[in-house]
Structure prediction request, 573 residues.
Amino acid sequence: MIAAVALTRQFGDRLVVDGVTFTVARGEIVALLGPNGAGKTTTLRMLAGLIAATAGTVTIDGVPMTAATGSALRRRIGFLTEAPGLWDRLTVRENLAVYSRLYGLERWENRAAALLDRLDLTPHIDVRAAELSKGMRQKVALTRALLHDPEILLLDEPTSGLDPEVTRGVRELLAQRRARGGAILMSTHNLGEAERVADRVAVLQERLLALDAPAALRARVRTGRVEIRVEGAADRYLDAAASIASSATAEGPLLHVVLADPDERTPALVEALVRAGAGVVEVRQDVPALEDVYLGLVAHGDRGPAR
Amino acid sequence: MNRRVVAALLRKELLDVSRNRGALWPVVLVTALALIVPFIVTIVIPAVIGERLSDDSDLVRLSLIVDPGHMLSPDGRVQLFFFQQFLLLFLLTPTTGAMAMAAHSVVGEKLARTLEPLLATPVATSELLLAKVFGALMPTLLIAMAGLSLYLAGIAIWGMPGVLGAMANLRTAVLVVLVGPASALLSLQAAILISSRVNDARTAQQFGVFVVIPVSALLVAQFTGAFWVSAAGLAVISAAILLIWAILAGVSVRVFDRETILTRWK
Prediction:
């Protein structure tokens, strides 16, 4: 649905986005991760047609985003900007009413009732934006982005400033949109959220460092570490473990071993330990968190290849 | 141009202005001043110093231009001359107050970070700017027209007999219906053009002051009797102002650089 091909953006001599290529399909959520200044907001702005790419293309269902097509394509996009950008002197209702009129929506309040309820905005509908808390402003901005029921959502940190309960509500909302065939690209600093919500994660640091499912990304950074809990002291089985593992240490009932290929070698290791008389209680592979993967990618971003 | 979109944005502008009383105070203040000054000059000062307006032979001679048929007394004629002169000033001064509002409009939205979500909608630049101009113009004209009613009421109460009746002529109508609104439209369009090219509200206001200078020059020239613009002349001037406004509106749309506004302004 959304396709960015070799998307590049330069501001003067400064390269902000460098040859980024990815797609977001219908019924898919892609999380855009990256440190501050990595080009996430610029990428979202290019996809929304707010700023032009220095090179590369953005297409929505095969229609290239240009000055001529931008207006029609933007009708299909819901864009949550980095700042909520509400008119402070207008109430929540008035803020949303302006946007509903811009999109030519009839009886928008009926259409948005469920959305307003889910985000707990109904009791605050006649409160001026200036009087809202940061989280509440973010919720109004999110409602505004969803008001015209867009097929494509470009969300710049959608859960920033929200409390955990509302954050969960937003995640459910995004999941619903995905189930209805929406294509969602969201930038976030929250790795846990990316892992929970996104089908794929794009790690951006000027260029695209990685784009894959969270589990697949984690699998890229295998430590090979396996922890085995045995009955009694583990040091009795160090020799058996060392016959399979590249290194093995013992600590109380725990054996810490490093395997060249944990998926393949773990059964053999367990077999060797059992043969040596060990009562194996638990075997746990050390799976890196997405955070480890992310930090590893970003730390080596300037050297590592884009995968 | 989508009228629904312009109407939606205009409604928002008017709502915003109605909640921002502070922004309207300069307009009300200059209108009040422009309302008081003509009566001080024509009624209060002569009464305080004990002289009649017709005691000044130069004024009597100058004022003949507004009453060539000698329908009024010399005092009434000089009053009519002043009231006609001040009418132009009266119609234009609210614009100077509204300049601050217009100058702040685009740069203000940017600073409040309300512009980006708006630009992410299908809104065209022409629709956005038109709503901005008319959003500043409409309250200004409303205040000017309210002031005009008081102005005419004041003339009816304190003016010499026949002066109000003599004011009701084609020239006055052209001034009220064409020159005032057209000048305001041009000034506010210029202010909004400036507002979309600078990144600071104060800079926009400072540049905006330049727009008032040609109008002030016209006023001064009329007061000194250098020339008197007839109703037809004022209509031609209005047409010229509207033409310049249309050109300026086109230029405003062309130079409104969404990208620079979003990425370079801080």
